[in-house]
């Protein structure tokens, strides 16, 4: 399995979750877990997705999701799970 941490941060707007999830579904990614909160007008989402069936490279998926975010006015970042875990060790 190729698990990836995807974070989305920015001003809340209609369709953020839908557009990110649609992109992932169209590329055969499986969303394993998702959490989202809105604090006042600010949107924050974190998801774990399995990209093992995605035919594009991680770098392409990351760049395309960043572009989806730009069209929505939010920032979308992708990190491989093993790198995320190492960066957030205590």
Instruction: Choose one word for the global shape.
Output: globular
The overall pLDDT, averaged over residues, is: 92
> Order of SSEs, N→C?
EHEEHEH
Estimated structural class: alpha+beta
Tell me the fraction of residues in β-strands, as a range: 35-45%
Beta strand count = 4
The rounded distance between the terminal residues' Cα atoms is 25 Å
Strands ordered across the widest β-sheet: 2-3-1-4
- Tell me the number of helical segments per DSSP (H or I, 4 or more residues long): 3
Uncertain runs are none
**Which bin fits the share of residues in helices?**
25-40%
Q: What's the alpha carbon Rg, rounded to whole Å?
A: 13 Å
Largest sheet: 4 strands, antiparallel
Description:
- By secondary structure, the protein is α+β, with helices and mostly antiparallel strands.
- 37% of the residues lie in helices and 39% in strands.
- The chain is built from three helices and four strands; from the N terminus they run βαββαβα.
- Strands 2-3-1-4 form a four-stranded antiparallel beta sheet.
- A hairpin with a 2-residue loop joins β2 and β3 (42-50).
- α1 packs antiparallel against α2 (58-72).
- The two termini are 25 Å apart.
- The mean pLDDT is 92.
């Amino acid at each position: 399995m190729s698990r990836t941490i995807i974070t989305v941060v920015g001003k809340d707007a209609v369709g953020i979750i839908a557009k990110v999830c649609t992109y992932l579904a169209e590329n055969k990614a499986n969303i394993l877990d998702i959490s989202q909160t809105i604090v006042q007008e600010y949107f924050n989402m974190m998801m774990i997705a399995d990209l093992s069936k995605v035919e594009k490279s991680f770098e392409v998926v990351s760049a395309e999701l960043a572009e989806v975010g730009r069209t929505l006015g939010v920032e979308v970042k992708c990190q491989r799970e093993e790198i995320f875990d190492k960066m957030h060790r205590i």
